[in-house]
Every structure is written in structure tokens, then in C-alpha cells.
Write a structure and sequence with these properties.
Elements: H1 3-17, H2 21-34, H3 40-52, H4 56-69, H5 74-86, H6 90-101, H7 111-123, H8 127-139, H9 145-157, H10 161-174, H11 179-191, H12 195-208, H13 213-237, H14 244-268, H15 273-297
Helix pairs in contact: 1-2, 1-3, 2-3, 3-4, 4-5, 5-6, 6-7, 7-8, 8-9, 9-10, 10-11, 11-12, 12-13, 13-14, 13-15, 14-15
Length: 298
């Protein structure tokens, strides 16, 4: 093979690995000028370049050419899977992943593609298959945090809250400062009707990121439920006749208390309220909507 061609191929690969895709593309085009047919490595690298440049149709052409030259390449089939996903051909994407992941000598080296496959299966609503993939990865003693996070997400959707909680707790133990995991743990405790533990985790997530509005919103939802429950209990204890109108007025007033509590939480944490003004106003509407839903149901 031409020495200049091999030098250009090496430079193209190096630039691609460094994500310098425009420079890599120019080098690859020069290599093609020397060898019109190219070779497997060049077409594979060009597929990566076009993928990096978000030119997925051209990436598809390059990877198909590469596979014609070497159809038993695990890497090429996996890259094709990524390209097909971006082209929204998810069923074909799974087929390419299967071809790439079958009969691997070192599954650990391609672990990220097992995760990709699991994620696509979730999007295709094939949750049980996705869980099998994640469990397969976990059984290999994987320390990949997102396997546990993704497993938790699926189990939560399936209503398997206890199992989802264990998955998120494992993910959180691997990355203790991840606010999103802690918030999700709090939400699952809420679904399990363990409000104390739910609030404990939601408050912890507030501390980790004061500027994220989500934990404040979920705390307010729990507060509104507690207010509603206290109202019901007081009515029973006092043997008062409960009318819809009196209950509605009390809940609407209590929603203002929840909102004020939220504002005080923000001030106590020295959050710049000017930055949060738009989020805060939006949140007030969500809380009031939550209260109104409670009114309608009851």
C-alpha cells in the first residue's frame, strides 16, 4: 500500500480520535485521492468523522462500504447501530447492535454498547428485554453507574418501586453528590408512602443544588398532601360537618402557606431570588394546580 496513503490514514485516525473532525475529513479526502477504492480502515474512520459532524446519511454510506469490505467487524456493526439510531431507525439499530455484540471475546470492552442497546429497547417499549441487558452487565460486576440509574428508571415506570429504590440507591452510593439520584430516591419513597424518608432525601437534594427548582416543587407537593391530611384529621376529631366549599377555601389558603414556605426555604439557603424569579412564578402555578387537583378528587 502507498506510503503516503498510510501516513494520511494514520493522521486521519489520530485527528478523529481527538474529535478534530473537520481536519480529519480533509486528510481522509486526500487519502481517497491516492487510493480511490480506499480500505476498510479509511471507510470506518470516515463513518466516525461524518457521525461526529452530524452528517448521518454520509456516515451510513461510509459504514456500509466498510462492512462490504469486512462484514465480521464488531466495531463496524456497533457504529452502524449508532448511526441508525440517529436516523431514527431504532429496530434496525437493535439488529446492528446484536450483530456487533454477538460472540464477543471481551464483552467488557464493549460494555457501553450493551447500555446503548438497553436504552434503545426502553424507547421501543421493550422494557423486560432492557432489564435483561442491564442485569447481564451488572452480573459482570460492572461499576457503570448509569446501568443502575437506567434500571431504576425502568422499574419505576413498571411500578416496581422497591426494586427501583435499590437500583437508585446503588447508583447514589457510587456518586453520592449526584442530586438527581437523591431526588429520585425521594420521589420513590413518596410513592411508597414513606413521606419522612421522601422529605429527607428531597431536602438533601436541595442542599446539593439550590438553583434546581425540581426538589422544591416535590417538597411542596408532599407538604400540600400533609396539609390536606391534617385538615381531614382535624375535621374528624372536631366532629365538624365537612362541606366542599369550606374544604376548598382551606386548601387554597394552605397552598399560599406552602408557597411562602418554599420562598423562605430559598431565602434561608441564600439563593439569589432574582435569578429564580421566573422559575419561582412557574412553580407557584404548579403548586396551586396540585392543590386544585386535590380539591377536585376529594
Amino acid at each position: 500500500m502507498d506510503k503516503k496513503y498510510l501516513e494520511l490514514l494514520k493522521e486521519t485516525k489520530s485527528l478523529t480520535d481527538s474529535t478534530k473532525f473537520q481536519q480529519a475529513l480533509k486528510k481522509s479526502e486526500k487519502a481517497i485521492e491516492i487510493n480511490k477504492k480506499g480500505c476498510f480502515d479509511l471507510h470506518l474512520t470516515q463513518a466516525k468523522i461524518f457521525f461526529g459532524l452530524n452528517k448521518f446519511k454520509q456516515a451510513q454510506e461510509s459504514i456500509n462500504t466498510a462492512l462490504k469490505l469486512k462484514n465480521d467487524s464488531h466495531e463496524a456493526h456497533l457504529i452502524k447501530g449508532n448511526i441508525l439510531y440517529e436516523l431514527d431507525e431504532k429496530e434496525e439499530c437493535i439488529k446492528s447492535y446484536n450483530q456487533g455484540l454477538d460472540n464477543l471475546e471481551n464483552s467488557k470492552a464493549y460494555e457501553e454498547y450493551f447500555i446503548y442497546k438497553g436504552n434503545v429497547l426502553v424507547e421501543l417499549n421493550r422494557k423486560e428485554e432492557a432489564l435483561e441487558i442491564y442485569d447481564e452487565i451488572i452480573n459482570r460486576n460492572s461499576e457503570e453507574i448509569w446501568v443502575y440509574a437506567n434500571k431504576g428508571k425502568i422499574l419505576k415506570i413498571m411500578g416496581k418501586y422497591e426494586e427501583a429504590l435499590k437500583a437508585y440507591q446503588k447508583a447514589s452510593s457510587m456518586e453520592p453528590e449526584n442530586q438527581d439520584f437523591i431526588l429520585k430516591i425521594g420521589k420513590i419513597f413518596s410513592l411508597l408512602n414513606q413521606k419522612g424518608k421522601a422529605l429527607e432525601n428531597i431536602k438533601k437534594s436541595m442542599v446539593l443544588n439550590d438553583l434546581d427548582v425540581k426538589p422544591f416543587y416535590y417538597k411542596s407537593k408532599i407538604d400540600s398532601i400533609n396539609i390536606n391530611n391534617n385538615f381531614e384529621e382535624n375535621n374528624i376529631n372536631n366532629n365538624k360537618k365537612n362541606t366542599r366549599s369550606s374544604k376548598n377555601c382551606t386548601l387554597i389558603n394552605d397552598s399560599e402557606i406552602v408557597i411562602e414556605t418554599l420562598k423562605n426555604d430559598l431565602i434561608a439557603r441564600k439563593v439569589d431570588l432574582k435569578k429564580l424569579n421566573e422559575k419561582y412564578e412557574s412553580l407557584k402555578l404548579k403548586i396551586k394546580k396540585c392543590i386544585k387537583i386535590n380539591i377536585f378528587i376529594n
